Amino acid sequence: MNDFLLLGTSMLATAVGLYLIPFCKRAVLLIVMMSVLGASIGILDTGCNVLILDIWGDEGAPHMQSLHFGFALGAFLAPLLAKLALGTTVSAENHTEPDFQPPATNGSPEADSVSLFGLPDDMNLLWAYAFIGTYVFIVSVFLFALFFKKSSRQEKSKAFAQESRRAEYHKSLLCLLFLFFFFYVGAEITYGSYVFSFATTYAGMEESEAAGLNSIFWGTFAACRGLAIFFATCLQPGTMIVLSNIGSLASSLFLVLFNKSPLCLWIATSVYGASMAATFPSGISWIEQYTTISGKSAAFLVIGAALGEMAIPAIIGIVEGQYPDLPIVLYSCLGSAISTAVIFPVLYKLATLPLDRQQKANRKSEDKKAMPSSSRL
After folding, report:
1. pTM of whole model > 0.70?
2. 24 phi and psi, to 5 degrees?
3. Contact in structure between 72 and 222 (CB atoms under 8 Å)
4. DSSP 14-72
5. 352 exposed, middle or buried (CB, 10 Å; 0-12, 13-18, 19+)?
6. Residue 268 to residue 259: CA distance in whole angstroms
7. How many angstroms separate the CA atoms of 24 and 334, rounded?
8. Does 178 or 356 have the greater pLDDT score?
């Protein structure tokens, strides 16, 4: 399927879902709308990576960093937009109003059918979703416009198809990178999701301080993804991954050892967010240097990341509930950092093994050419 058509359709579905979510009055309908959003954003996440690899190939490291900087910037700005739209009074009213009754207690089925859709109580919520939905819709229009420029696009695709290559251990590299992204994204989402709760319940911070700790994590994450755009022009993707792994391992170990020191938490959290920033886009750019990543391969890697995003935070939440006196969140981050630090050298060895064999073969042939007299003897 054409890349631009696929991405434009997914963006259009995202816009429709954003428009309809504020009107949902039933949990089942909201689940349907959120499922549409999840599917469309999953297509977008995969398709954008494939599109950049398709256009620039192994020279697209800065462009890949730019794409994921957009993701990080949106993740940083979205809570701020939500806070501006909802304010602090809405959540307080929802928690303190004594006469609140859920819609499920309404008696007749007619009332249930009427309450499927309706205006939200706070119109700021509607305007926030409408604003972001309109923005997404405009982007989809640009993607559909690019779709109609087929001739030049097809020529580029044909030229790229002729240059495609396949590594000797292609499937093994994909499976290991699947695990690499599973642990990396799982740790990223786990810490970003639970750092506020951890800081308030375990480290004894005030809510304002815990919110600041959460903001510093995502803020340094987004800022370093922006800086990684420029670093990618002068550093190899493998070098950036090694530096990120070292930073993640050191900061997560620091978090575990000094988990109740506020100053250490602030420093280690900022370093951890900065270290996690460039790993995912660098991983995609790195593997493209050794083997061509098709749409199926990219989807396989994104599935690994999505499974880590789904499974690890859920498991950590359950375990943390059973052992509230232990910093399970920090242990999971350290374990994920160790896993990624172990997996990447294996990945590098598998990717460069055919090159090592070729170099040894060339050396043997050169040695044979350099010793004609010995053969005569």
Report:
1. yes
2. -70, 130
3. yes
4. HHHHHHHGGGB-SHHHHHHHHHHHHHHHHHHHHHHHHHHHHHHGGG-HHHHHHHHHHHH
5. middle
6. 10
7. 40
8. 178
